[in-house]
Input
Amino acid sequence: MYIEVNGITLFYEMSGSGPAVILVHGNGEDHGIFNETAELLRKDYTVYALDSRDHGKSSRVETLGYDEMAEDVAGFVKALKLEKPFYCGFSDGGIIGILAASRYPDLFSKLVLCGANAFPQGLKAFWLIFFSLIERFRHDPKIRMMLEEPQITGTQLEKICIPTLVLAGERDMVRESHTRYLASKIKNSCLRILPGEGHGSYIVHSRKLYHFMKRFLLKPLPQDHD
Output
């Protein structure tokens, strides 16, 4: 399915019924990485698996940045009149979720961040060097974006007050200290470092992510006090 948002066309797949869950992939991927997760989630939820701008079947763009991608997700939620959906983002999708949730505190009801980083130096040195070499030869705007962005401040992270599950693999490309930093700044967060897992091993065409998400999504939301 296609929808016009912020002057571009986003492609998404919708399946299932129940509370809305948005899934957003990482750099250079598309919604298909979540096929196994969506298959399990759609038994109890309406799943919206998106292709970010300049990815998959969504519009190609001249410039690429996480801020615009976060605005795309916010626009998507508003255009479809989704009522505080759950959000799960992997890698770049996690960054997009952080930016959208910090900018629009009432946009989501819960947040799942998988292998996200708040700034490029949150990645291990090996990966920064590796991506720098790739960008030097390929001049890929997606890789350049990863090397220059995001630049999310501690203050921005502290604006996120919804329940948040912070996940990362024990062998993730994101530094464990950085993942712990994210969890420490997001007030209502719970952290899980997954033994034996890499950056996307529990997500990309895997059923594992669903099982990590399931208990978190089912946990009742805290009640507002008058």
